[in-house]
Design goal:
six-stranded parallel beta sheet
Length: 556
C-alpha cells in the first residue's frame, strides 16, 4: 500500500498541475474543463490508480466510471488495467449510463409494480415496447430513477459500493441521465469527478442539457479546475484548433506564440467530383500504409451517413485490397467483451499470427478460473481444443469459409469455457438475454464479412479495429485519437445545422482527433449512391469558414 502523499503517476506519466491535483483529490467533488488532447481519460486512469493503490478506496469497495459510449467505457477500463494491473483493476467498474441503469433495474426489478413490472428475461429494444417484456433504453433510465426514489436500500447500496464515481464527456449528459446521477449520489458520501469540454458538446440533438457542467458544480458543490495543455496534436494542428477557440470561446484561447513549432500537417483538398476525391484519398491512404503507418491510426470522419457519403471511397479501397470498417454499425458491437472474446478466438484459429489475440484469450481463461489449479486445467484444455481445430481446419478447404463450421467452433469453445464464465465478462450479461444477443450479433457480423470473400482472415480484418481503416461519424469519434485524420465532405450540405455554433462544435471535434496529419476535403459534385437517401444534393458547396481555419498565415 502506498501512502497518498508518496503517490506518483503510474508508468512515468507527467500530469500538469491541475490534473495532478485532481488525481490526488480525496474529499471534494470536482468538475474539470479540459479541451481536446488534454488527457481526460489518462487523468481518470491515474486517479483510479491513486485511489486503489493508496487505499483511499478501501477493499472491498469499488470505483465507478460512467461514459456515454461502449467503446469509451472499454477504453478507460483497459487503461486502468494497464496502470493498476489485473488485481486492483478488478475493483474498477466502467459502464455507459444505460449499462449503469440496467444494473440497477436488474438488481431491484421486483420493486417495479403494475404496468411498469418487468419479467426476469425482459429485453431491450431501441424503439419498441411490449408491456412486461420489452422496454426502450430511455425506459431503462426512467425505471432506474424510479427504483432509487422509492428504495433507500437500493440508493444506499450504491453509495456503500462506490467510494468514487468518474463522469466522462459530461458535457453531453441529458436531463434524464443527470437526474439518475442525482438520485444515486447527490448529498451522499460518494466523491464525484466530472470531466468535459463545452466546445465539444455535440449531442444537443439527443437531449444534452445546456450548462450541465455549471449545474453539476452548483448541485454537487464541486470544485472547478481547468486543464490547459494539449498533449495530442502537433503545433500546426493546435494552432488551427486555437483559431476556432478564438471564435467559439475567446476566453479559452491562448496566445499563438505559445503554440510555436512546425510539426504537423494540414491539407485542404478541393475536387470536382466525389470520384476524384475517392481516388486521391485512396492514394494517400496507400502511401501512409506503405510508409509503415498502421491501419488503426488512420480514420475517415464524416458528418453523417458514412455508408452513403463514403460509398465510392470504400469501393475504391476495396479494389486496392485495403480493408475498411464502417464504425456506425460495428463500433459498439466490437467493443463488447463477449464479441472481443469470440473474434479473438476466431483470429487464433484462423492462423492470423496475432500474439495479442492469443494473450487475450488465455487471459480470459485464467481470470475466469477460481483457483490456479483450475486455471491450469482449463488453459490446457483450451490449448488442446485450439490445436485440434487448427489441425482439422485447412486454409482453402471446404470448411474454411463455411460460416456454419465457424459457428459450431465458437459454440464448442464457449461450452468449454462455460457460459457462466462468459457472463462474468460484464454485469450486463448476468441477467436477461443480453449475452445471447451479443454472441448472435457477433457471429452474424462475422458471417456477413465472410460472405464478402477473402476467407476468415480477410473477414476479421474488416471487423477489426487493428487491421482496417476506420470510417466514423463525428459523433462516433468522440474520445478517440488517430495519427492521420481525413474529414471527408467539409460541405454545407453535410454541416447543415441552422445554428452555426452546433456546426462549429461538430467540426471542432472532428479536427481535434488528429495527432499529426489532417486532411480536409470538399467536392463540387457528390455522386448519388444507388441506395441514396431521399434527399441528396448532387451539387456541393465547400464550407469556407471551416476550411479557412486551416490557414496558418492567420496568426491571431
Amino acid at each position: 500500500m502506498i501512502s497518498p502523499k508518496d503517490w506518483e503517476p503510474a508508468d512515468g506519466i507527467t500530469l500538469e498541475p491541475n490534473a495532478f491535483l485532481a488525481a490526488r483529490n480525496q474529499c471534494e467533488n470536482v468538475v474539470i474543463t479540459a479541451g481536446p488532447g488534454a488527457g481526460k481519460t489518462e487523468l481518470l486512469a491515474q486517479r483510479a490508480d491513486f485511489l486503489l493503490t493508496t487505499g483511499c478506496c478501501p477493499y472491498p469497495r469499488r470505483v465507478l466510471a460512467i461514459a456515454f459510449k461502449v467503446d469509451a467505457a472499454r477504453n478507460i477500463r483497459e487503461r486502468v488495467r494497464r496502470r493498476c494491473g489485473d488485481k486492483l483493476s478488478a475493483r474498477f467498474d466502467s459502464f455507459t449510463f444505460h449499462a449503469f441503469a440496467k444494473r440497477i433495474v436488474d438488481n431491484y426489478r421486483v420493486l417495479l409494480k403494475g404496468p411498469e413490472a418487468l419479467n426476469p428475461d425482459y429485453a431491450l429494444d431501441p424503439v419498441k415496447r411490449v408491456q412486461h417484456e420489452r422496454i426502450t433504453y430511455d425506459d431503462l433510465i426512467r425505471h432506474a430513477i424510479h427504483i432509487l426514489r422509492i428504495s433507500s436500500h437500493a440508493r444506499n447500496s450504491l453509495r456503500q459500493t462506490y467510494t468514487h464515481v468518474f463522469l466522462d464527456e459530461f458535457q453531453d449528459a441529458t436531463g434524464q441521465q443527470y437526474q439518475l446521477l442525482k438520485e444515486a449520489f447527490l448529498n451522499g458520501p460518494t466523491i464525484l469527478t466530472a470531466v468535459g469540454d463545452t466546445k465539444q458538446r455535440i449531442m444537443k440533438f439527443a437531449g444534452a442539457v445546456d450548462e450541465i457542467m455549471d449545474m453539476y458544480a452548483v448541485d454537487f458543490r464541486a470544485r472547478s479546475l481547468t486543464l490547459y495543455q494539449n498533449f495530442r496534436s502537433a503545433p500546426v494542428l493546435r494552432r488551427m484548433q486555437n483559431r476556432m477557440v478564438q471564435v467559439m470561446e475567446p476566453s479559452a484561447a491562448v496566445s499563438m506564440s505559445e503554440l510555436s513549432g512546425e510539426e504537423g500537417s494540414i491539407k485542404v483538398w478541393k475536387f470536382g467530383s466525389s470520384h476524384d476525391e475517392a481516388k486521391a484519398v485512396s492514394d494517400q491512404i496507400e502511401t501512409w500504409l506503405n510508409s509503415g503507418v498502421m491501419h488503426k491510426e488512420i480514420a475517415i470522419l464524416v458528418r453523417q451517413q458514412p455508408h452513403l457519403v463514403c460509398a465510392e471511397l470504400v469501393a475504391e479501397l476495396s479494389t486496392r485490397d485495403v480493408p475498411s470498417r464502417n464504425e456506425q454499425s460495428r463500433q459498439d458491437l466490437t467493443a463488447e467483451p463477449a464479441a472481443h472474446f469470440i473474434l479473438s478466438s476466431i483470429r487464433v484459429l484462423a492462423g492470423d499470427r496475432s500474439p495479442a489475440a492469443y494473450e487475450d484469450l488465455m487471459r480470459f481463461v485464467t481470470l475466469s478460473s477460481p483457483t490456479e489449479e483450475s486455471a491450469l486445467r482449463k488453459t490446457r484444455a483450451v490449448s488442446r481444443f485450439l490445436a485440434r481445430w487448427k489441425r482439422d481446419m485447412r486454409p482453402g478447404g471446404a470448411s474454411w469459409s463455411d460460416a456454419q463450421t465457424w459457428r459450431a467452433l465458437v459454440a464448442n469453445l464457449i461450452e468449454l469455457v462455460t457460459m457462466s464464465a462468459m457472463s462474468a465478462l460484464s454485469p450486463e450479461y448476468q441477467r436477461g438475454p443480453r449475452l445471447a444477443e451479443i454472441i448472435a450479433k457477433t457471429l452474424d457480423a462475422f458471417e456477413y464479412e465472410l460472405k464478402q470473400g477473402g476467407g476468415p482472415v480477410a473477414a476479421l480484418r474488416r471487423l477489426s479495429e487493428e487491421d482496417a481503416i476506420r470510417i466514423l461519424t463525428i459523433h462516433k469519434c468522440k474520445g478517440l485519437e488517430f495519427e492521420k485524420v481525413i474529414v471527408l465532405g467539409v460541405e454545407k450540405e453535410l454541416f447543415w445545422n441552422k445554428d452555426p455554433r452546433e456546426n462549429r462544435a461538430e467540426f471542432f471535434v472532428a479536427i481535434s482527433r488528429a495527432k499529426h496529419e489532417l486532411i480536409l476535403t470538399s467536392t463540387a459534385t457528390r455522386q448519388r449512391p444507388p441506395e441514396g437517401a431521399r434527399r441528396w444534393e448532387f451539387s456541393r458547396h465547400a464550407y469556407d469558414e471551416f476550411l479557412n481555419y486551416a490557414d496558418d498565415s492567420v496568426l491571431e
